Structures are given as structure tokens and as C-alpha cells.
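User: C-alpha cells for Sulfatase-like protein, please.
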Amino acid sequence: MRPSSSPSAARRWLPVLLVLYALLFVITGSWFLRKYLGPVTWDQVLFHLQHGGLDYSDPRMLSRAWRYLGGTLLLSLLLLAVLRCSGRRGCLALWGLLGLGAAASVAATVKDPCLPGDGDYLAQHYVDPSVLKLKAAAPPAQRPDILLVFIESLDEAYTRPRDASQAPLPRLSRWHEAHQTFGALRNLSGASWTVGGLFTALCGVPLQPVGLMSRQSFEYSQQFFDQGRCLTDLLAAQGWDISFYGGASLQFAGKGRFLANHQVGRQFGREQWQARGVAVPAEGWGLLDSALSEQAWADMNRPRRDDEPRMHILLTVNTHGPAGSEDPGCAPPRADGSDVAASVLMADALRCTDRMIEQLARRFTEQADGRPKVVWIMGDHLAPQQLLAERLSPSADGARTVFHVLARFDGRGRELSAPDAQRQFSHVDVLPTLAEAAGLSWAPQPHRLGLGVSLLAPGAPATLVERDGFATADGRLACHSPLFAKLWGGDAVGD
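Assistant: Done. Predicted C-alpha cells:
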């Protein structure tokens, strides 16, 4: 093909440039995801497209993304020049390589865990909290305060260092040993990113995208499980005042909409801290954990009524991938963090979060106010890539599990016992477990809410992953569920 510089020739080659850019965007975009986030699911990709907020993510991540986009454009222009100077066979070979490269890159990056079966698996096992009769065992003044902490990407393996002198979580590991754990908390595909992990733990069902490809996609994006009830809805109905403290923006991936739609009356994220005059770093996901925990503790101690139990939900940011954040509240920042290995940065981030969250939990439980206390600390999800794997001992079965620990105290500060068991469970079991820890009971299906079963239930009734196996339960729950769509948007689903 002979090059031409006429305006008509330029217009003729513009569609070719656009197709080249699209193919290269698929290749470089999926490469970007693999490098900085690891493999992802289709649900994760579609959900973030549906609910947006990507412009509120870490500015460093956005800067990297723009560089990838610029590089993709330059490469597209280079390949266009090659095509214009190549013969027919050369052009066909290049298009074939690009097509194969795009397909291979997507296959290596995005997985579809759906395991089709008969009917709506979620509907077959879902216990709708809205049709149950719930009641609190104690009067309002004696209902426990609850501290629920989601630590970004916290792997249970961090409690098993090969060398105790290099323990990533020395303080929380002691909590892990001293208080109640329930065995292996497995990470469902629908709980494999931050909002998915929060939602699945609080609402008892894995998060799915709804309506993105339909004519009602805008309407769906304005909703967030509007017809479903979550732990915060149940506790608010029984008098709990609920607050959320996060370092990142509430605008990201629909997080603020979810909290507002489910009775979380007080919400704090990046913008809310800035409005209060708190200095938030310009880079990173938002308010770092040393300052976040202090701001949360100050707000947790605001004046209150004697008959007002409180629930405090906190989501950390320091250990967010790909390598965590340096927190000057824990140690002076290095002169040039870019020269530090990612594993070193993550180890520092873990130690900082470990110290700040253990301190917050200890402060919370040591309040001598006569009110019972419940503390549940867990990872929001597992990171696709474990940076410190070489420093950690693997689990007995080789499966990665999410960090979790429960501590309960009566009004005199005495710790309450819990079943000593090694269970297989998932995020969906957190909802009924915390509901029972808060003193709620219900009928006609006691101990079960959403897809979960309370780990405090007598007789240890089987969880979904114990009964069907993790692979089967995860695969079936990853498939489209008409019931989930109905719970998301109600009557609009049938249109």
C-alpha cells in the first residue's frame, strides 16, 4: 500500500486508526489491570463501569492509566504507519496478531466464575430479612455498641509469618489468637473487591451488576439493593445509630449510595474529612489510617443519649494495592518512595494499619461506660496478588482465606464465650453472625439471614460453602439471579 497525504486519504484511514486503538486499548488495558490489580471478574469490571467514581480513585493510579492511554495512542499511530506501508499479507498478519493478542490478554485478565445449574441458586437459599420478625433481647440502654472494621485486602496468612521478627501484623495476630475466630473465611467472587466485600458481609448476598446492558441501566445505577435489607437496616430499626468512617471518597463505585440507602445516617469519606478541615494527602486513596482512626475515635465519642446504641463501621485505605501507602502518622516518609520495593511498602503499610486498628479496638473495648461491646475485624476481600507470600507460611490446604476475629464483652468488660469451631464459611455468614452478636433473634427461620447462617448458632448448622462446597457455591452464586435483580430495583425489573 502506498502512503498518501491527501485529506480524503486521511479520512479514509481514520476508521482504521480507531479500530487499531480499540484493539490496542483492550490489550494494554487488560495488561494494566493485571499489573496493578491482578485478575478480575466480569462482575467487578461491569459494576465499576455501572456505578462510576473512577475519577475519585488514587491519583497515582489515574496518572498511570493516562500514561498507558497515551502510550496506546502512540503505538496505534506507529502501527497505522506500518499498515499503510505494508502489503496485503502483512496487513492480514498484523490484524490477526492484534486480534489474537486482544483475546489472549482479556482471557488472562478477566474470568467468569459462573457455574450454571438448575434455576436461581440464590433464590433457592435466600432468607429474606424483611419477612422475618426480629427483636432485640435487651432494652435500648443495654444493647451493645458495635465496632465493625473492614481492613483493605487483609489476608489471614499475614498472621502466619515464617519469621516472627518480621510479623506483618504483630498486634492483630495477638487479637486473632486471644479472641474468637471461626476457621476459614473464603472469598466469594462477588465479594472480591471493596464494595463487593462490604455489601456481601452486610447484606448476606454476593454483589452482582444489574441492568448495565438494558434500557434501564441509568435507573439501575441510581439504586443499590433498594428492595433488600441489610444488617444496617435491621439494627437501625432496633434503635442503633450507625456511622461509617472511610478514608477514600464515598463517590467511588456507589459506596455512598449504598450506605445512604441502608440507614447509615453518618458517613465520612475523603470529601467529608476535607470539609471538616482535616488534611487529606493529595496522592493515595484518601485519609490514611493513622489519621482516620483518630478522627473516627473522636467522632465515636461525641455526646449521646443513654438509650442509643451505636454501630461504627470503618474501612481502611493504607493496604490498598498495588503496594500500599506510606503513612507519616506511623513513620516518616522515605525521601523517594519510588525506589522502595513494593513488598517493603506493603509491609510498612500493614504494620501501620495493625497498630492503629488494634489501638482503636482496644480503646473501644476498654470504655468503662457499662454498655456491652462487639468488635468484628475482617479483611474486606483478598488481594489478587499477595506481595509478601515468601514471608508467610501457607495454610494447611493451600487455600487463601480472609482475616477475621470477633470479640464480645458484657457491660462489666468481661469477654463472652463463643463456639470453638473450625468452620468453612464466607462473607454471607457475617450478616446473621453479627445480628446474633448484637442480641437480635428472629423467626420463623432462626439463625439464618440472606444466604448466611450464624456462626454463633447452637448445633453449628452448615453454611452454604460447607454444604455444597466452596467451588460449587461460588460458581452458582456468580451466575445471574432474577431474585437479586428484583431485590435491587423492585418492580422495574419486570419491564
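User: Anything notable?

Assistant: The chain has two domains: 9-111, 121-330+340-488.
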